[in-house]
Amino acid sequence: MNLRSRIIAVLLTVSLLPILLMGISAWFVFGQLLERKSLELQNTVLKSHADAIESYLAKHLNSLQLLASTQELKQIAEQNTLNEVFTSLNESSRSAFEDLGVISADGNHLAYVGQYDLMGKNYREADWFKQVMLEGTYISDVFLGFRKAPHCIIAVKTTDGNQPWILRGTINSKQFDDLVSTGALGETGDVFIVNREGIYQTTSRSGIVLETSAFTDSHSFQGVQDRKVQVNSVEKIQVTTWIKHDNWLLVAEQDAAEVRAPVNRAIAKGALIVLIAVILIVVTTFLATRHLTNLVDKANAQREEIFRAFTRSAKLASVGELATGLAHEINNPLAIISADQTNISDIVLEMPEAGEDRIELLESVKRIKRQVERCRTITTKMLQFGRKSDSQLVLTNAAVALREIGSLLERQAKVRNVELIPDIEENLPDVMIDPLELEQVLVNLINNSLQALPEGGTVRIVGKQVGDEVLIEVIDTGNGIRPKDLQRIFEPFFTTKPVGEGTGLGLSVCYGIVKSWGGIIEAESEVGKGTTMRIKIPLSNDS
Predict the structure, then answer these.
(1) Pairing assessment for the beta strands 190-195 and 248-255 based on DSSP bridges
(2) Contacting residues for 530 by C-beta, under 8 A, at least 6 apart
(3) CA-to-CA distance for 61 and 157, rounded, in angstroms?
């Protein structure tokens, strides 16, 4: 694993692990909390709904009590009077009663208003009759009775003198079912009532009135309870509470998935926020790591380049010392050879003109002289490479020098079918250099470019200011330099020219000269496209 991968792994672990742990914790903790709150809301709604149903029954029970207490048995037992009373009662209660009847103390139906034929019926043995005669008021469970139809009654007992009688009304079943069902929550919600035997008292999604429900073993409890159950393989939340003096169980059912839906939506929103945060962290980590590792790579590359430059400078310095010593050592025997060559030449010239030996000796002397001059040229370059001569640094107008050198070499370039193109900025600032050395460096670089263009081409001489440096470039369209050779072109005695055509000291000397100015010389080349030699000279404080 590389450095970048390790940094990314560490940063992502440190950043994401706490978020993931917090997200998982929030998933469970807040998920359960939100689900509990949803159940509490259902409990509250059911409790309020139970109070509404109790109020509904109590209201109509009170209406019958008030009505019975204000009527005399003889009067209300008349059919016309009962009709008027029934009409008035339904107007005030919004048709809460299906029928109304007056029953004597011995269970006979004295008067009746409604759709069933109940006159003459006797209720002495009916459970509801016994309860109302015993307790004074009674709200029954749903039963069939003489009408053979499910119904629920409200009955009150009153006394006319010493004679008791009963006013009984039948609750409007549809109205009561509608009231109960309004407590349902959501699309899957259902609210219904069962009695203590588990018999449906209102219509529900899972059963009809007077059918037996699953609540056959319900026990009394205070307040509201909730639980999870399986109904037809569907998980449901049941919320229950007792009403009508613990005789009816009010039940609210809803699919658990629908109850948890708001919780899941809240968790999903939280998960989305966490996901966005994770994405931002990951993207930021990758970008920051790439930026940092790029800086590290760049610093390493600069360090390696400085180390290579330092190593190259050290090598060049060592070779320069060696070259200087060799040049001095070689110059001494060369001086002796040159002196002996002069003496031999003088002796030969004093010999008689006739004779092939004289001619042969003169040719040998000339060859010796040429080789001595060649050796002196080599030792001179070695001395220049060793930088034993002192540079005369003065403020120099580089633009003027570049134009003069371009003009000087223009004819030589034309002979080689090469176009020399000057590209020199006006008002180029002065730099602290040795003018003669600048001429030597540029002539060397331009000659190298001309030699790289045996079939013609272009050489562009560039001079411009870039920041706080003067940039000089010699750009040719020659064959270019192979990458493996490009790294060695400034090494002494390294050359790509054929044997006998180069010493390998030209660019080394140029390198030493430019370094003595405090500048930089570098090469950029691509095989088949050409080479750019680039010199950067810092501006002096006085320029």
Answers:
(1) antiparallel
(2) 457, 475, 476, 477, 478, 479, 480
(3) 11
Copy the structure tokens of residue 53.
Answer: 């149903």
3-state class (DSSP) for residue 410: helix
| Cα-based distances in Å from 509 to 130, 259, 483, 506 | 133, 88, 21, 5
What SS3 state is found at 355?
coil
With tokens 């056959």, the residue in question is 216
Residue type, 411: R
Q: Record the tokens describing residue 394, joined without a space.
A: 């003065």
Tokens 């010796």 appear where?
368
Direct distance between the N- and C-terminal alpha carbons of the chain, in angstroms, rounded to an integer: 52
Beta carbons within 8 Å of 387's beta carbon, 6+ residues apart: 320, 512, 513, 516
**Which of 379, 519, 368, 497 is CA-nearest to residue 441?**
519
Question: Within 10 Å of residue 154's Cβ, how many Cβ atoms?
Answer: 25
- C-alpha–C-alpha distance, residues 75 and 534, integer Å: 129
Domains of the chain with bracketed CATH: 294-386 (1.10.287), 394-538 (3.30.565.10)
Q: Provide the CA 188 distance to its chain's centre, in angstroms.
A: 39
269-316: per-residue pLDDT in tens? 878 888 888 888 888 888 888 888 888 888 888 888 788 767 766 666
- Which of 515, 376, 498 lies closest to 437, judged by CA? 515
Residues paired with residue 151 on neighbouring β-strands, in sequence order: 143
| Alpha-helix residue ranges (DSSP H) falling in 351-391 | 356-386
pTM exceeds cut of 0.85 = no
Residue 262 has pLDDT above 80, yes or no: no
Amino acid residing at 189: G
Question: Which H helix or E strand runs over 234?
Answer: strand 234-243
Q: Phi and psi of 394, rounded to 5°? A: -140, 160
| Rg of the chain taking only CA atoms, in angstroms | 59
Q: Report d(CA 272, CA 157) in Å as an integer.
A: 65
